[in-house]
Amino acid sequence: MAKNDLDDLIKKLDRIENHLGEEIAPAVNKLLKESVVRSLVDWYNDYDPKYYKRTNNFMNVIANTRASGKKNIIVMTVDSGCMDLYPGFFGQSLQPSTAFDYMFMNGEHGHGYWMMHQSIPPYMYVEDDIYDGFGGRINKIMNSTIEKILKR
Length: 152
Description:
Layout lengths: L2 H43 L20 E5 L2 E5 L8 E2 L5 E2 L1 H10 L2 E2 L7 E2 L3 H10 L5 H15 L1
Antiparallel strand pairs: 1-2, 3-4, 5-6
């Protein structure tokens, strides 16, 4: 193997070792968003409200769902940053972060005295997808990306 070929291979291996997370983050982001959408739709479909009209405000978390990569690490976040306040009784509002905890983390439809139903929390579906590698699709994305890097 010639010195230039060896240097090229070392650069490619360094790219894989130190930048794979960055390379695959856009594809992982798409899978994460799909998972969050499915989990929210399942949560909504699990209870048909009788005493209130849905605002679908909870669906706004999709806009703040993201996966980003640095070195070989993927960070996935889902948060309430794009949700609106929930109007409450007696001039009080429910903060989006609190509503997110009630719904996404606890699966609640309402809270306390006003909790009408409790579903499986959406985060559990998303967490299962992550642990499962999104049905093995992460491995396929990584393998394909590594192959592209090696062919460059």
